[in-house]
Write a structure and sequence with these properties.
Elements: E1 24-29, H1 32-44, E2 52-68, H2 71-95, H3 104-129, E3 135-150, H4 152-167
Antiparallel strand pairs: 1-3, 2-3
């Protein structure tokens, strides 16, 4: 009998439900890029990378403020967003329009109505916040460190390979361009 959870513990098949990672630590890195470089090195060394997991430890949500919100910016963004949606709807309507010579009409109507609705929804949304959030931001989940774990059967070899990587100077392939 097959269930929606079949393949849960099969090798090579990632689990469908959130599960804690397993394995022995073979490396720890300050950035995701460094951990990714380590796993790439393992792959280049013909290591069985299916046994490897990169785990972000000490997670934190970082919200970077990207700018100040003003009525002009809010209305401009709302109008642009509405225009794109209205243009999309207008083009779809014009594709199904059977009357000859009236292909621009549905596009212009869709564009105009899209701009109006975009302005209204943006104004209502910003106005209802009443100045409680007058900034734009982008959120990102970041880890304090990234551990590379490996299944016990391959951990010793993986640790030895990563020790060789640590002894190598950063070359042109490994450097940022």
């Amino acid at each position: 009998m097959t269930s929606q959870f079949s393949g849960q513990n099969r090798p090579g098949v990632p689990p469908r439900l959130p599960t804690p990672p397993t394995g022995w630590p073979i490396g720890s890195y300050g950035t995701y890029e460094e951990a990714q470089r380590a796993v790439d090195f393992l792959a280049d060394s013909d290591f069985t990378v299916q046994d490897v997991t990169i785990v972000g430890v000490d997670l934190m949500l970082v919200e970077r403020v990207t700018g100040r919100l003003t009525w002009g910016r809010v209305l401009g963004t709302g109008a642009a967003s509405g225009a794109w949606f209205g243009l999309f709807v207008g083009v779809l309507l014009s594709l199904f329009n059977s009357s000859a010579g009236a292909s621009a009409g549905p596009i212009l109507v869709g564009l105009t109505i899209g701009v109006v609705f975009g302005l209204v929804f943006a104004a209502v949304g910003y106005g209802s916040a009443r100045g409680k959030r007058d900034f734009q931001s982008a959120s990102q989940l970041v880890a304090g460190r990234y551990d590379v774990l490996c299944q016990p059967r391959s951990a010793e070899l993986g640790r030895d390979l990563l020790a060789k990587l640590a002894m190598r100077p950063v070359g042109p392939k490994d450097s940022k361009d």
